[in-house]
Amino acid sequence: MTEPDFRHDVSVTLVKSAAADADVLFAARVSTAGEASLAELDADPGKSEGLINYLMRDRHGTPFEHNSMTFLVQAPIFVFREFHRHRAGWSYNEESGRYRELEPVFYTPAEDRPLVQFGRPGKYEFAEGTAEQHERTVTAMESAYRHSYAAYQEMLAAGIAREVARAVLPVGLFSSMYATCNARSLMHFLSLRTKRENAKVPSFPQREIEMVAERMEAQWAALMPLTHAAFETHGRVAP
């Protein structure tokens, strides 16, 4: 049997993009000034920054939709089940266990991942677990993963269809998907899937999807720094 690979991190790669702060400015100014040239936009950076902040503050959202980013995300299946709750402004294509044999790559939490949950639904708090709790968690997960993947391979070897055999695999299995969005849909995702002190609306994301969100945000911020700064300034609320 192929030896399983246990990972405690996720991977997010910006595959392609057509996204810049100028895209927001073009879209916003066409309503009042017609089609603007890039030179006109660059002539007064302060004015451009002010316009983006105005749009963000007063939640004029459509100018933030005229751009595109495609990410390759590699994460546990349970992360994708949460991710696919985000439908407006998102497109997804995920690898399929019907058409290919799935690789034995599984998630285990890192030592610094909080393990102990308390509180009530909607306002859960998490605390660090003990070394013994972490060891127990990882040991149990690895044992279950090995057993389920062995059963999966036995079924495939017996001629069972991939789409049937995959049912024995757990949600801790890693999958891959392309996710395409615009800045407005990404900001909505980030407002729900990250926890920040400066956020006007509190959020309580599961840590694993927050790890994906953090990597997406860093790559988006490099593409659209003025838009990202305005998102931060105005409380991380999607326009």
UniProtKB/TrEMBL annotation:
The protein's annotated pathway: Pyrimidine metabolism; dTTP biosynthesis
Record: residues binding FAD: T62, R85, H86, R87, E94, N182, A183, R184, H188
SUPFAM superfamilies tied to this protein: Thymidylate synthase-complementing protein Thy1
Pfam families registered for this protein in UniProt: Thy1 (PF02511)
Principal EC category: transferase
Self-association state and partner proteins as the record states: Homotetramer.
Molecular function per GO: flavin adenine dinucleotide binding; NADPH binding; thymidylate synthase (FAD) activity; thymidylate synthase activity
PROSITE patterns: THYX
Keywords: FAD, Flavoprotein, Methyltransferase, NADP, Nucleotide biosynthesis, Transferase
InterPro entries noted in UniProt: Thymidylate_synthase_ThyX, Thymidylate_synthase_ThyX_sf
EC code: 2.1.1.148
Annotated residues for binding of dUMP: E82, F83, H84, R85, E94, E95, S96, G97, R98, R166, R193
Cofactor(s), names only, from the UniProt record: FAD
Cofactor note: Binds 4 FAD per tetramer. Each FAD binding site is formed by three monomers.
Name assigned to this protein: Flavin-dependent thymidylate synthase
Catalysed reaction equations from the record: dUMP + (6R)-5,10-methylene-5,6,7,8-tetrahydrofolate + NADPH + H(+) = dTMP + (6S)-5,6,7,8-tetrahydrofolate + NADP(+)
Stored CDD domains: ThyX
Gene Ontology annotations of biological process type: dTMP biosynthetic process; dTTP biosynthetic process; methylation
Family per record: Belongs to the thymidylate synthase ThyX family.
Active site: R193
Function (record text): Catalyzes the reductive methylation of 2'-deoxyuridine-5'-monophosphate (dUMP) to 2'-deoxythymidine-5'-monophosphate (dTMP) while utilizing 5,10-methylenetetrahydrofolate (mTHF) as the methyl donor, and NADPH and FADH(2) as the reductant.
